[in-house]
Design goal:
The protein is α+β, with helices and mostly antiparallel strands. Helices cover about 50% and strands about 15% of the residues. A hairpin with a 2-residue loop joins strand 1 and strand 2. Helix 2 packs antiparallel against helix 3. The longest helix is centred in the C-terminal third of the chain and has 13 residues. It starts with a helix and ends with a helix.
Length: about 90
């Protein structure tokens, strides 16, 4: 999160609202907050069913906090079995 934007959100009591709305949208399996490279940082694990969900997820955080967002897909063991099965069947 951009330091100035996050500071402003804290001062105006909006940070909890912004992050709370994100948590409500994402329904995360896990969410961790801390500092990374001197920036307020969140690591949020959630199930994104469609790539087209990305704007709904990211745009509020871009707009409200000038957030830098990195998204990378991961799989649970069942997903790996399914993916390997598809590969072998192709």
């Amino acid at each position: 999160m951009d330091t100035e934007k996050a500071n402003a959100a804290i001062r105006s009591n909006r940070l909890d609202e912004v992050l709370g709305a994100a948590m409500e949208r994402l329904q995360p399996e896990a969410a961790y907050f801390g500092a990374l490279d001197g920036m307020r940082t969140a690591f949020i694990v959630f199930d994104m069913e469609q790539p087209s969900d990305l704007p709904v997820i990211c745009e509020p955080l871009f707009n409200e906090l000038n957030a830098k967002i990195s998204v990378f897909p991961v799989m649970n063991p069942e997903d790996v079995r399914t993916g390997v099965g598809r590969f072998l069947a192709s």
